[in-house]
Design goal:
Elements: H1 3-16, E1 20-23, H2 31-34, H3 77-82, E2 86-90, E3 93-94, E4 98-101, E5 106-108, H4 110-123, E6 129-133, H5 139-144, E7 150-152, E8 166-167, E9 172-180, E10 198-202, H6 206-212, E11 219-223, H7 226-235, E12 240-244, H8 245-254, E13 259-261, E14 267-270, E15 273-274, H9 279-294, H10 297-305, H11 314-323
Parallel strand pairs: 2-6, 2-7, 10-11, 10-12
Antiparallel strand pairs: 1-6, 3-4, 4-5, 8-15, 9-12, 9-13, 9-14
Helix pairs in contact: 1-7, 4-9
Length: 326
Amino acid sequence: MRRPALVLVVCATAALGGCAKVSDHAQDSSLAALATEEPAPVVRKQLPARPGCRGDRIQSLAPRPLPEPGHMPAGTYMRTIQRRKLIVGVDQNSLGLGYYDPDSRRMEGFDIDVVREVARAIFGDPHRILFKAMSTQQRESAIEDGDVDIVASAFSITCKRIRRMTFSSVYLRTQQKLLVTEGSNVTSLSDPDLLHKKVCATNKSTSIERLELEKPRIVPVPVKLRPDCLVLLQEGAVSAISSDDAILVGFKKQDPQANIVGGCLQIERYGLAINKRNRDFVRFVNGVLARMRRNGKLTQLREKHLPDADAPSDADAARCARQAPP
């Protein structure tokens, strides 16, 4: 076992596990303040996907012109937010996307910088944010229960999820792939060397749902937090990890001896999740994202935080859709 990489992940998981609040300002945050107990899961009725829905064709609400920062229109949800802080649900363990940097004592990453632009558009201040750290399985309930204004946590837009919440337009597109240890002969999910072997993914993620389609040929292993998979891989408890390449490149930085392999298992389209009641806020956020596309900000953030993650083209997306199971 490669102890240095393992220590890094275990510390991140142990110190940052669970759901907690973290301010964007150094004086308001510490690792100790982030460590809280995971709440008991809420059992919710499973709703079917919208009839005829296709994940690659889901359309968000049309953007609206942006008002001046600090001058949100009366009666809008943005005016409600303007009276306090923007409350954002995030992951704090995903290097490159959303993670707590103990050196700067700030949340950092692609997702984090995207919501900072939303805060900038509301307040004129990109740091007027209260971050709530949460696991993958907590994201949907946080939105439905109104615990947060928005979730920015590598949240893939799916037909099932839009029954419970509204998503912004797509702000990042990634590919689900595999991560294996150095020396592994595994090159794809269908590799004979992976037959009846364990493959790890985060609970309640689209990655674990994709792995479930491969049973009993492989054994899916769901975990609570994303770094838990890397720990299991380093311990030899699983043969591979399956997740979005934007997440896997962060794992590879933590353990350079791991390798990302295989072709695209499915295309993931990230959106910012918002409660269905707040349609005006969805349109506002889409206006912010539209401006970020026009001025090149989204591209700049991808190059800054995710330079090693592939940006799938339309042709890649079409090819992956043909290869993926129905």
